[in-house]
Write a structure and sequence with these properties.
The structure holds three protein chains of three kinds. Chain A is of the alpha+beta class. Chain A contains 15 helices and ten strands. In chain B, strands 1-2-5-4-3 form a five-stranded mixed beta sheet. The structure holds iron/sulfur cluster. Iron/sulfur cluster sits at the interface of chains C and A.
């Protein structure tokens, strides 16, 4: 590992060789001794040009393109898109379709939060928690596969409704899986809040106050851990959330521990919500008919993705292709908050702080870099991670 | 909460700078402002604590095709600043001519707007004055200057620009 | 890449080559690079390492440095920005080296084909030894692909 002298420029050029971060990231941190004094981000290694790509695909083709913006939160992207298109076409998806959409969205949240729990634990060097949470995550992957036929891109949505039904057999399968997951989640809650080594790396670290969170525009669980009550499912309910309200989970402390606690509590809330919807499944059709050409107009739809508020702006010129689709992903907001609030924290805490916002590069196809004043030295993400683990040894 | 009241409150805040207002959907209000008033309008919303800036959408509106011989009218870039407050969305619309796409930055008011502004600079070629960071955000390092992929005039490269490097 | 074809010059050489092939097949080190994927393939690759699938039982180890790697698992279409990095990682790997392309995107550009920032599929940039189709491929498929690659390395 490189020595740390003052005024060094550390560049963490790519996360790609890093097994858990999965995506390329390029951060630039300027550090003085151990303290970060400035941070900036360079994104774009996975920038594919999707927004432009939507303009030469038809409304239906875009369902599949937009689903593939992100493999972790694929379903919410499509939900935001199809609901926006339905608004433009003045078509209302049948209630049963909305319920199924919501169930899949919540299952996706479960899978995403468990994935995050593992990755974040790995960044702190807690590899057994990583392995356990990923083992248990397979349960929810099984559920998703059983109901949709695929583990990652479920293609649940079509314009006007959903593609598959949830019958009694699938329902029982989901309920059984949730029972197991609930038990494991309670166990994680206990570990995360009582294990001393774990608390040493999370308590009072990377604290973001409520004022900061608002000022910096944080969204999703990151903001809720700082006591900001924003959850689109609650403040601007859509689909089945109108009939089945969620309880917004917040925490006051705003440190890393709070971000863990909020996400774990959200898991429990998702279990409750899925059960409630399954108990009161509305009967009826699965999809409404939608015209091939969407009437001209523009609309906005916002949904709560696992990582926070996801924003879609859709403009139609009246043809069979959209004129403009704008996607603003939650990770983008959280990046801008993290580059501002990383300042003043220890370099050793960076892996956990960055992982704490649950970054998703491919959502935004962006990249981050880290810098010290004049000398230049290259660190890999792995070096940074090990530095963090060593520091707290 | 009364949606209409919230929207009205937002519209009233913007009253001094409004050129025109419309309600395209029941939860949305579009407010057109002139670009020199954008900063003041954003400041009013921020000071009143009305919602938060969710996104800035860029739109390219090329001039409609005209018959041969007539002078072609100039196209516009349109920027949409979306502010959300619960279910209500107020959108500030600013129009910029191709010839002079300059605009004041709002980063001094809303620091988190920096990534949105960098995106606009790169993808639409908007010139934003006094924005703290103008380095490349999403486009590759070898992207040619002066090509803005989200403008309608851009329809892709003839051949991949990196081909001959192999 | 040609170890099975090479005629060994001496008995000692032959033993050493056999040993090397044996070691490589039984413990290949793998590096993973995402050149523009949607993460779907990447989380499935990560899932193959976790207890349910446990790729490590084949001696496969995922690690961070290209200089130690035998196999490059690449996912996603190649974007303009990541093309150079992908090439650099490949160049840094010691010979013999193999590339596995995972996912429809890596095979053909997939749904992203034609987007302005996409160069194309992985085999337009690097020589690919194994293709694993799927969007994303199931972890079992990824394991099968890697194992098939290893089998093909066995000296006849
Ligand atoms: S093949 Fe599918 S899952 Fe894999 S990167 Fe491409 S879109 Fe994502």
């Amino acid at each position: 590992m490189p020595t740390q002298e003052q005024n060094q420029k550390f560049i963490v050029p790519i996360g790609p060789q890093h097994p858990a971060l999965k995506e390329p990231g390029h951060f630039e941190f300027t550090v003085d001794g151990e303290i970060v004094t400035a941070a900036s981000v360079r994104l774009g290694y996975v920038h594919r040009g999707i927004e432009k790509g939507t303009e030469d695909r038809t409304w239906t083709q875009n369902v599949y393109l937009l689903e593939r913006i992100c493999g972790i939160c694929s379903h919410v992207h499509v939900t935001a898109y199809v609901v926006a298109v339905e608004q433009l076409a003045k078509v209302q998806a049948p209630p049963r379709a909305e319920a199924i959409r919501t169930i899949v969205a919540e299952l996706e949240r479960i899978h995403s939060h468990m994935l995050w729990l593992g990755v974040a634990a790995h960044e702190g060097g807690f590899d057994s928690l990583f392995m356990y949470s990923w083992r248990d995550r397979e349960t929810v992957m099984d559920i998703l596969e059983t109901i949709s036929g695929n583990r990652v891109h479920y293609s649940a949505n079509i314009l006007g409704g959903v593609k598959f039904d949830i019958d009694d057999q699938k329902r029982d399968f989901i309920l059984k899986g949730l029972e197991f997951l609930e038990e494991r989640t309670n166990h994680y809650m206990k570990i995360v809040t009582t294990d001393e080594t774990f608390l040493g790396r999370t308590r009072n670290i990377g604290t973001m106050t409520k004022e900061q969170a608002i000022e910096l525009g944080a969204v999703g669980p990151t903001a809720r851990a700082s006591g900001v009550t924003i959850d689109i499912r609650d403040s601007a309910p859509y689909s089945a959330y109108k009939t089945f309200p969620v309880n917004v989970i917040t925490d006051e402390t705003g440190d890393l521990l709070a971000r863990f606690v909020v996400r774990i509590k959200e898991l429990l809330e998702s279990y409750r919500l899925i059960r409630e919807i399954l108990d009161h499944m509305p009967e009826g059709e699965l999809a409404a008919r939608i015209p091939r050409r969407i009437p001209a107009g523009e609309t906005i739809h916002r949904v709560e993705a696992p990582r926070g508020e996801l924003f879609y702006y859709v403009k139609s010129g009246g043809g069979d292709k959209p004129e403009r689709i704008k996607v603003r992903t939650p990770s983008l907001c959280n990046w801008s908050s993290v580059i501002n609030f990383a300042v003043g924290h220890k370099l050793a805490d960076m892996p956990m702080i960055l992982a704490g916002i649950d970054p998703c590069f491919s959502c935004n196809d962006r990249l981050i870099k880290i810098r010290r004043a004049n000398q230049s030295q290259v660190w890999t993400w792995e070096d940074l991670r090990l530095h963090g683990i060593e520091y707290y040894r | 909460m009364d949606l209409d009241k919230v929207l009205l409150e937002g519209e009233n805040l913007l009253q001094p700078w409004t050129v025109s207002t419309s309600r395209p959907e029941e939860n949305r209000s579009d407010v057109v402002v002139a670009r020199e008033n954008l900063h003041a309008a954003v400041e009013a919303i921020k000071d009143a604590g009305w919602g938060y800036l969710t996104a800035i959408t860029g739109l390219d509106c090329p001039a409609p095709a005209v018959a041969e011989g007539e002078p072609a009218p100039e196209g516009n870039l349109e920027l949409l600043y979306h502010f959300c407050n619960g279910l209500a969305v107020v959108t500030l619309r600013v129009s910029l001519p191709y010839g002079d796409p300059t605009l004041p930055s709002v980063c001094d008011l809303l620091p988190y707007a920096t990534l949105y502004e960098r995106e606009l600079i790169e993808l639409f070629g908007v010139r934003i004055q006094n924005t703290p960071d103008t380095s490349r955000l999403v486009l590759p390092d070898d992207w040619p200057d002066g090509i803005y992929p989200l403008r309608k005039a851009f329809t892709g490269f003839a051949a991949p620009a990196t081909e001959e490097k192999e | 890449m040609d170890m099975a074809v090479k005629t060994p010059s001496s008995p000692m050489q032959k033993v050493m080559d056999g040993l090397r092939a044996w070691a490589r097949i039984n413990s290949p080190w793998v590096i993973h690079y995402n050149s523009g994927s949607c993460n779907g393939c990447d989380i499935e690759i990560l899932a193959t390492l976790t207890p349910r699938y446990d790729l490590e039982r084949f001696g496969v180890k995922l690690q961070g440095s290209p200089r130690h790697a035998d196999v490059l698992i690449a996912t996603g279409p190649v974007t303009r920005q990541s093309r150079e990095r992908l090439l650099r990682i490949y160049e840094q790997m010691p010979d013999p080296k193999f590339v596995v392309a995972v996912g429809s995107c890596g095979l053909s550009g997939g749904v992203f084909h034609g987007c302005y920032n996409i160069v194309g599929s992985i085999d337009e940039v690097l020589p690919v030894s194994a293709y694993i189709p799927g969007c994303p491929p199931r972890p079992e498929a990824i394991i099968q692909g890697v194992v098939a690659l290893l089998q093909s390395l066995k000296p006849q």
